[in-house]
Amino acid sequence: MNTAASLVDGRWVVDGEKYYCTGTIFADWTTVAVSHPELAGRQIAVVSTQRSGVKILDDWDGFGQGLTGTGTTEFRQVPVDCFMPQQTNDSEAAIFQLVLMAVQAGIARAALNDLRRAVQSRTRIFTTGTGVPVYQEPQVLQLVGEVSAESFAADSVVIGAVLEVEAALGDPGLNDEERYAVCELAANRAQTVVQPLAIGVTSKIFDGLGASSTRSGCNLDRHWRNARTIATHNPAIYKARIVGDYEINGVQPQRLSVTGEDSTHRA
Q: Do the beta carbons of residue 51 and residue 79 sit within 8 Å?
């Protein structure tokens, strides 16, 4: 972990650097995962971005998420306002992941809207088509219907997962470990399904429009770029395995105490 808390003149401060700090550019306060000399695992420090020791860099160069305020944040002797209490079985990660799933569903819906407008306004037909206007072309209509159905499915899966998480959070009959498992499994199942739907929709829209839709001025590729970039958050390949291990072996989802570089890795 490349950020650490230390005690200086009776006050906790943070030093280090964090890359991929989504939203920090727009934030007055931020949370920082830090190592702590007196506590094991990841600790979360709350600091003000207005402190003189905070330097926020607009250096994100990914092909998606260009407007999310993602970049590097440097911390030099930045006072800690407080440490957030850490609970082994809280549902924070599941809720964060569902927010990302909602974004994915929104991207799919936006791609459908752009596809609809483009097909409705298109005048050119293909010699390999049936000779009718594109907005009446059976195969194009079928493709639009598929995109609409897949967008609807993404919405429905996210809403279903949110309702399951809400129910678990309000269920007094669940203990903390059980509640954590229900929330994690709901989010993991949703992520396993929604990400491929969003990525598929944002690629498929071009099949109904032709080569002219790939012009930079159309900017339709932004949907795929954003969906693909968001899908790299907590990659879905790990989530399907967790769900499968639970279904077959009854293994409850486990929360790691720290993420980042593997100090045991050898080149």
A: yes
Positive/negative CA dihedral, 160, 157, 227, 224: negative
Contacts of 54 (CB under 8 A, 6+ apart): 47, 48, 73, 74, 75, 76, 78
**Span 162-214, pLDDT tens digits:** 999 999 999 999 999 999 999 999 999 999 999 999 999 999 999 989 888 99
Q: How far apart are CA 23 and CA 68, in angstroms?
A: 6
CB atoms within 10 A of CB 251: 12
- Give the helix ranges, DSSP H, for the chain: 92-121, 138-169, 176-204, 221-230, 236-249
pTM of this prediction?
Answer: 0.86
How buried is 179 (Cβ within 10 angstroms: 0-12 exposed, 13-18 middle, 19+ buried)?
Answer: buried
For strands 54-57 and 72-79, give the pairing. Answer: antiparallel
